[in-house]
Each structure stands twice: as C-alpha cells, then as structure tokens.
Amino acid sequence: MSHDLVSPIRLVVLISGNGSNLQAIIDDITNNNLPAKIVAVISNKADAYGLERAKKAGIEQRVLSHKDFSNRNQYDLALKELIDGYQPDLIILAGFMRILSNEFVEHYLHKMMNIHPSLLPKYKGLNTHQRALDAGDKEHGCSVHFVTPELDDGPVILQATVEIKENDTAESLAARVHEQEHRIYPQAIRMFAEKK
Ligand code: GAR
Predict the structure, then answer these.
(1) Mutate which of 44, 47, 116 to test ligand 1's pocket (most atoms within 8 Å of Cβ)?
(2) Residues 6+ apart with CB under 8 A from 179
(3) Atom of ligand 1 nearest to the CA of 126
(4) The domain spanning residue 125 has which CATH number?
(5) Can you tell me the distance from the alpha carbon of 77 to that of 117, in angstroms, rounded to the nearest whole number?
(6) Do 13 and 37 touch, CB atoms closer than 8 A?
(7) Structural domain boundaries enclosing 117
(8) Ligand 1 mean position to 40 CA, how many Å?
(9) CA distance 89 to 122
(10) Would the CA dihedral through 25, 31, 37, 40 be positive or negative?
C-alpha cells in the first residue's frame, strides 16, 4: 500500500550492534510500506555493523561512545542533545544495549519505542532465549513497547509469538524470533505514523 498522502514521520534510530531491525525498517521505508524517514542512526559503539547498513542506505550515522563520558547522566545528556538536533517525531531503540536514565526516558515519554526478545512481561533483561528454554516454555517471542523508566517495561504495542520446538537451541530460537521482530517493529512504527 502506498502512503504518499501521509507525511513521513522523522525517526532517529539508536543501535549498538548488528542492526538487523534497523535494516527491516530501512527496507519497509524503501518499499513504500512505512511513511517515515530515518534522519539519523546513532550508535554507542563505533564498530556496530548497523552503521554500515545506514551508510549503504544513505542515512546519516553518528557515534557517541559511552567511553568518552564519566557517568550515565552525562552521556544521556549528550545523547539527548544529539537526538534533539534532528527534531525526531519518534526515537527507535533497535538493539541499543544501554540502560537509560529516568530523566532521558521521561524526556521522550510516548515518543520512544523499544523491541525486546521476549513475551513481556516475561524475561526482561538479557539471555531471554536461553531463559525461555530453561523454563521449559512452549512459546516465546518478542515485544515492541513504549519505553518507561523501568527496564524493558512500558505499554506493549505489538507482540509476536514463536512456538518452541523440542530440539531448539538459543540460536535457533533467536533466529525465528528475529524474523518476527523484523515484521512487527516496522508495523508498530507504521501504527504510530498513522496515529493508531
Ligand atoms: C534484538 O533481538 C532486540 O530484540 C534485542 O537486541 C537485538 C538486536 O538485534 N534487544 C534487547 O535485548 C533490548 N533489551 P539487531 O541489532 O540485529 O537489530
């Protein structure tokens, strides 16, 4: 479906690594499925592969290393200034592996989304795939949610469920969850853009 009549929203995407979710968002925009424009990709790590993806797509890339700051508040203040310079409508956390200060989160309340590899409220934090396997769960998945000060918390926008198979490993499960992430993250952004 074409979105020519909806004016694109401005996204700033924050990453720390591979950026496959970033890629899914880029692809959806390119295919005219998402009325959005990524105005900058910001990474806290200079070697994040997602920066290459942004470069290839002609998107501005910025690195703000947490190592250059003595504490979290100072880093978050600099990050906020960097982000706000791009005047985004929505901030997208796409594998941005940092805990954010309350002040930072509150500045972007209802304007910042995260994707987390579990069916929240289950398995906040790290190693979610292994934890789901260890618990003997029958299903697992991913959640897109608005970010609130509590880690991996906040109102869920969309979730996708993946069946856990008997011979699954954390890697095989992660691969299937990733496929779902790439489907629901652009969809959640589209809902925001269309004000649903
Ligand atoms: C994704 O699986 C995302 O759900 C997870 O990091 C990965 C990033 O992959 N995020 C978190 O765990 C946040 N708590 P990507 O860099 O390929 O998009």
Answers:
(1) 116
(2) none
(3) 12
(4) 3.40.50.170
(5) 27
(6) no
(7) 3-193
(8) 18
(9) 29
(10) positive
Band (pLDDT 50/70/90 cuts) for residue 5 is low
Tokens of 100: 């954010």
Q: Is 116 a catalytic residue?
A: yes
Residue type, 182: H
CB-based contact 189:36 (threshold 8 Å): yes
Q: For 75-90, what is each residue's pLDDT tens digit?
A: 999 999 999 999 999 9
Residue 192: Cβ-neighbour burial (10 angstroms; 0-12, 13-18, 19+): buried
Look-up: residue for tokens 């109102």?
A: 155
Instruction: State pLDDT tens for residues 142-186.
Output: 999 999 999 889 999 999 999 999 999 999 999 999 999 999 999
Domain count, the chain: 1
